[in-house]
Structure formats: structure tokens, C-alpha cells
């Protein structure tokens, strides 16, 4: 699956489980719980110990797509590609990663928090522009305002996604909606993989409800 098909797949499912755990074993457990709940995209951040090995192991799975997060350098991008990541996510405007991702035919998702950064990421060829931290810059209201001048930009949101706003992001047409690492980790530690699956399944249901009622 190339980057164009992957982005279309993400638009169908929307949710991305962001994993920022304290160990490789915990990262694998988090990914398993999210997958059991029906999440089709998992982002393993480079802050996870042994992140590349985790990505390499998860890349063998056929029930979801794994990507690399908190990618901040060319070297990390090349390492993630070699490990089998199907998308690369940055929290900041790392435009140098776009050609690396294009060359490997994987999706590049660049972080942005201002109109100027959004335009720069889009012009550079980022497949998605990640609004981060979304809750700090205005959440759905900010995305709605940005869709006015930038109607053709495809967005991801990360930061502050919860049950109260996930359907609004869907209705706005946001392509990728990140389930935050802190809430996923807290749920895993308190309730285990089965509890995490139940938690993520609830979001999957909310996304599907919003998609079908609005046909978006």
C-alpha cells in the first residue's frame, strides 16, 4: 500500500493510537489493546525505548498500519523506513522529511500550529498537516477557522481528543484523529489490554456514528 492509499484508508477509519510508553513491552501491549478495539493506525514515538524494534515487529501485522512518531531528523526518518513504518509523524515543521517519505512512498505528516506553518507544510508536499497541540490552539474551533482559507489542506489533530470532541473532528472532515498517549497508557496500566480495547472500541463507535450520520 502506497502513501496515497494509506491516507485514504486513514480517512475511512480516522483514529490513530499514539504510543509513548516507558518500555518496548508496554508499547506492544498498547498496540495490541488498540488493535483489539478496532484501531487501524498505531504511531510508535521515537521516545519509546527500542522504538525501531517495536515498529519492525508491528510492521509484520496485517490488521493495522504502524508508523513512527516524534521523528525529528533525516536519520530517524531513514531508520523508521527501514524498520517498516508506513507513515512518519513530526510534532514540528520538519520539511526535510518530505522528500525522504516521498522516495519511500510512505506518508509524511508534518506538525503545525499556525497558519504560516500550515501553508509551509502543505506547499512542501506533506500528506497531512498535524495540528499540535490541538487543544492548546483551539481544538475543533481552530480547525474550523483554518478550513476557511485552506479548504484543500488535509488535517490530523493531536492533543486533547476525547469523547466530547472526537465526533466534531469527524464532521469537520479531519483525516487523522490521534488518541493521546497519556490516556492510552493510563487505561492500559489500570485496566490492562482488554480494558484498553474496550476504551478504544468506544471511540471507534463514535467515529463510525459521526461518519454515517453526516456521510463524511
Overview of the molecule:
This protein has 216 residues and is an alpha/beta fold. It has a single domain, classed as TIM Barrel, CATH 3.20.20.70. 53% of the residues lie in helices and 16% in strands. The protein is built from 10 helices and 8 strands. It has helices at residues 3-13, 24-36, 51-58, 74-83, 97-104, 115-124, 134-137, 139-147, 166-172, 181-214; strands at residues 15-19, 41-45, 65-69, 87-89, 107-112, 128-131, 155-157, 176-179. Strand 7, helix 9 and strand 8 form a beta-alpha-beta unit. The longest helix is centred in the C-terminal third of the chain and has 34 residues, at 181-214.
**Count of runs of 4 or more consecutive helical residues:** 10
The CATH architecture comes to Alpha-Beta Barrel
CATH T-level fold name: TIM Barrel
Strand content: 15-25%
User: Overall mean pLDDT score?
Assistant: 97
Number of domains: 1
Element string (H = helix, E = strand): HEHEHEHEHEHEHHEHEH
What is the rounded distance between the termini? Answer: 23 Å
Which outline best applies? globular
Which CATH class applies here?
A: Alpha Beta
Number of strands: 8
Largest sheet: 8 strands, parallel
Amino acid at each position: 500500500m502506497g502513501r496515497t492509499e494509506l491516507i485514504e484508508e486513514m480517512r475511512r477509519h480516522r483514529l490513530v493510537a499514539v504510543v509513548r510508553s516507558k518500555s518496548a513491552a508496554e508499547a506492544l501491549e498498547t498496540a495490541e489493546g488498540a488493535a483489539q478495539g478496532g484501531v487501524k493506525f498505531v504511531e510508535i514515538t521515537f521516545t519509546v525505548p527500542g522504538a525501531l524494534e517495536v515498529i519492525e515487529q508491528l510492521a509484520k501485522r496485517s490488521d493495522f498500519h504502524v508508523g513512527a512518531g516524534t521523528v525529528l531528523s533525516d536519520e530517524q526518518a531513514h531508520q523508521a523506513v527501514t524498520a517498516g513504518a508506513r507513515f512518519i509523524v513530526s510534532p514540528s515543521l520538519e520539511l526535510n522529511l518530505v522528500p525522504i517519505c516521498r522516495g519511500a512512498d510512505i506518508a509524511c505528516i508534518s506538525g503545525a500550529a499556525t497558519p504560516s506553518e500550515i501553508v509551509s507544510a502543505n506547499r512542501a508536499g506533506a500528506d497531512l498537516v498535524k495540528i499540535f497541540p490541538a487543544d492548546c490552539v483551539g481544538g475543533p474551533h481552530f480547525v474550523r477557522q483554518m478550513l476557511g482559507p485552506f479548504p484543500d489542506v488535509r488535517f490530523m489533530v493531536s492533543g486533547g481528543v476525547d469523547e466530547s470532541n472526537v465526533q466534531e473532528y469527524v464532521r469537520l472532515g479531519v483525516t487523522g484523529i490521534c488518541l493521546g498517549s497519556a490516556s492510552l497508557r493510563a487505561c492500559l496500566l489500570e485496566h490492562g489490554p482488554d480494558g484498553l480495547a474496550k476504551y478504544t472500541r468506544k471511540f471507534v463507535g463514535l467515529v463510525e456514528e459521526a461518519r454515517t450520520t453526516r456521510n463524511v
